[in-house]
Amino acid sequence: MLSKSSVLNDRVSAATPSLCLIAFDECVEALLNLDVCILPTETVYGLACSALSEAAVQKVFKLKGRPSTNPLIVHVLCHDSAEEICQTNNMSKCLTDHFWPGPLTLVLPKKSCIPHAVSAGLSSVAVRSPSHPVFRRVLEKAKIPLAAPSANLSNRLSTTTLRDAKDAFGSECPPIIDGGNCELGIESTVLDLTTSTPSILRHGPISQKQIENILDLKVNDCTNLSNGNDKLSKKSPGQGLKHYSPNTPLFLHSSVQRMITSKIIKEDEIVIFPKVNCESSEIKNSFQFFLSTDGSYEETAKNLYRTLRAADKLNKRKIHISLYSIQNESFLPINDRLNRASYKRV
Asked: Model-level pTM greater than 0.85?
């Protein structure tokens, strides 16, 4: 029986076999030459470079226009690989046994091999093991840890498709591998293990409850926007006050019901609904998008950035969207991204 990884590898290679191999070799060569490339992950596309080279890391910061206070996540194959760049512990081993490879990033004390730029000058480093077969093949071939923030300009929408990643950089786009549309569509959960009590720094696909069940202890939630002073170095990406945002001003309504009855939505503006059976007919003469057919977290997360990008390309005056009910904890990552993307809370 083929493993999941083998099936995915075959599927990716079968789409464009010669182009995929050429792009693969070109990206690996770029990484070994301390240059950058774009790789798919299960979360979003990443702008990758050697995590061991200050010069390579600075190319990522320059191309993205990323502030030096915003650290990068280092990608490795497994917990043993992580031990080469940071100080692991029993807690990290327990978590990685359950969630790696996958969308959980751990913040741990870094070792001297990691350049200061990677960790925004802090003594910790964020590390995770991606599950996407293409990224894992690159890690196996290059044999170095890879720093890979989202493949977009700083503070703009993350990219979850090949086309969006290319469009983000235009003529300056580095070599890129087509890994298809990202399976999860939203960035990893980040958990800080450098404090006495573990703390969530960014909500993502792995929930706080899942982590607590594995550790058998309560963890802190430190994702509040009030902690987002952008002049201070962060332990994790995604903690800035403004992030994941479209160019078009995003007006964030407190609920879909209030958005539907809102008087501020004007003709020729964009309205994004959580699912197709919302009472969208009440809003006249607007451009309407739907994040899902069934209202599930999985479909919503996968479509979030892709839908916001499509709406942004219409170049209208405003985009309207609503928060999800706080009673449904699975939507915390969505609400977090929308809060940081918003121009104004309504």
From this structure: yes
pLDDT at 22: 75
Is the CB of residue 145 less than 8 Å from the CB of residue 74?
yes
Q: pLDDT value at position 161?
A: 96
User: For 52-65, what is each residue's pLDDT tens digit?
Assistant: 999 999 999 999 99
Could you give the CA distance from residue 18 to residue 21 in angstroms, rounded to a whole number? 5
Euclidean distance between CA atoms 304 and 292, whole angstroms: 9
Q: And the tokens for 61?
A: 């910061």
